[in-house]
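Budget justification note: compute hours in this period were largely spent on complex prediction jobs such as the one shown. Inputs:
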Amino acid sequence: MATTRRPKTLYRSTPGISRRRFLSTTAAAAGAAGMSWLAEGKPPAYAQVRELTALALSLFAPPGDARFGELMQEFAKQAGCRARFDTIAVIQVPPKLAAEAEQQAGHDLVDVWEAYGYLHRENLEPLDDVLEPINSKFKFFTGPKECFHIDGRWKAAPWYWLAFPGNVWEKHWKDAKLEYPKTWAELHTAGKVLKKNGHPIGIQISHSTDATAFWQACLWCYGGKVFEADSKTVAIKSAKTREMLDFAVALYHDCMTPEVLSWDDAGNNRFILSGKGSWTMNPPSIYLAAVRDKLPAAKEINHIPSLAGPAGRHNTTYNHGLALWKFSKNKDLAKEFLKFYYSEGKFDSWITAAGGFCMSPLEKFADNDVWKKDPKLAAFPAEGPYIHSSGWPGKPTQYVAAFDAQFVLPDMIAKVIAGEKPEKAIEWAEATTLKIVKETK
Amino acid sequence: MAAGDSGPVQSEALAATLHVSYTRRLADYLQQEHILGYLLLLPAFLWLAALVAYPFGMAIWYCLTDIVVGRKQAARFIGLGNFISLLNNEVFIQTVKNSFTFTVSAVTLKAVFGLLLALLLNKDLKFKRLIRGCVLLPWVMPVALSALGWKWMYDSLYSVITWTLNRFVLLVGLPPLEINWLGQANLAMASVIAVNTWIGLPFFAITLLAGLQAIPEELYEAAEVDGATPWYKFFHVTLPMLRPVLAIVILFSTIFTFADFNTVYVLTQGGPMNYTHLFATLANMLAFQILDLGRGAAVSLFMFPLLMLLVFFILRLARREY
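Corresponding output:
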């Protein structure tokens, strides 16, 4: 029996309109609408709400992140746009920046620190028009300016820098009747006693970012340097480096325990918080964590000025900057946000929220009450005149980035601790650094 | 009027006829196996092309150029320049040694203990299913998470392993041990091997268990009739029957272990003194921290020819019949 197929039509109440016709008509209508947006050269109304996005590492002082997010939302309300602030773990930031630079897409504003400004300089929008007026009004400190004023242009807005004074457990020093040290040599003398009392001192001699930073500060105090002022000529092989190396190894043997060889960046935090350690170098994150979690350690921890050496007092830092990608689709919006953010009542409110962890790169806001209210934080702003970026007296360039990423300085010390002769370790460090300069593009 | 009324009806009838015709032609077309087969393969092919072949092709191109992440000027073709540069790099040579030590040790440990565990799980145990589920836990947990757990267990201050060892040491009146698990070269390597073994063991155990269960019981019965001892049965029945599965598991594990990143990145960052750097951690450092994508790609592809040879020999071994 032959079957007859019923013509496929839409519901009977719309006689004569077949499914095919319905689909073709609606598709044509949608296409025409799309073409009209294209012809006008602007997206449909719903897509016109722009979104300003920013990416940064998660601060060790979370209220700082929360305040930054609030400021972005406040700005978004005024500017009639949306805003999003993403924070990720510090170790995830470099690959994320690399991915965004390679894709030429991603956030508008990104957190760059130290050499990352230089490494990504070709993809960063110059911010002179925004930052010069801010600099005239509030004045950026020299250190942050040197870090982000690249090839004569502002390639990132100095955001904050980190201070690394001494972190001490007061009771251990009092029990040993010791004065706080002013020099590395005094630390060595005191450290011997403290270690005997079961409370050693400690800074990383491991594959951790802090290790390079801390030992580079020590190297500067002894008159040594990794690069000359031209940021390219390798200067690590010197009598000063040898002097510092001998000191570092003695400091390790006499005042520290082998655990420093395995610490990550938080190793010294745990060391002090546990009550075992007497001294380390760090921002106030150890103390702030103890206060936040109401730990007894908060009463015991205090901060003392960084140390001097035969060549004077020098200390390390991490300069952080807010950079704007050249490929950002919201450049004007991002620049307006920077003007909004670097203003009275805004930037200082963020500094306050960060609880003293983030040091102001602007002289105007460096005198924030956050470091006065709690006397234990008074040592932090005082570090300002002594800080240098990695690679000093040169700038943090791609060579410095490679030197830091390969942990050459801590490895040089670790090699001698493991039994290698100091002169061989220095030769190794020099050869490695020369290779870095030769091979790094 | 009549002609006007019949118009839509005719066109609908024509549409219906065409529809039937199209459907039939499509059905006829799809009934040809060589066409349907390729069509069914197409999604998987596109998936692999986009997510495996394209990145792999890009990696090959990158490793032959001086490409730097985000740099505007086009990458220059430099041939084997990146590989030559790596072969003159002390850290890379150390990384090659580390990777072999790490992979050979970890895969051997996983194979031996995985087989033992599989034999144990193959027994008629109480709570068999629960135990099998628990055994899988290290493998199903995110590697970064378990590595963080191990980091605490190896911590210089809070190590539960050192604490436990010290309970015994104190019992015999010796001074407590201060073991620097991640701070000494050999110990750090042993520690990361132990973590990789812990994570990868269930993969061996469960896959070999499946292999064990597929061995026909008659073979064991025949061996018993012939008076075979348990050792004889293991070496002359179990192992030969397991060989194809074992070969495939070892092959997969070797590739995974060579490519391991999380364990070392979380535990040691390649330290102390680069004694635990693996290809993946070194490639990450070069490509993402100093943006040298060319050399980073060269590091990650360095093992490719060797792994291809390994794949060839292991697959031959798996197919070999005795």
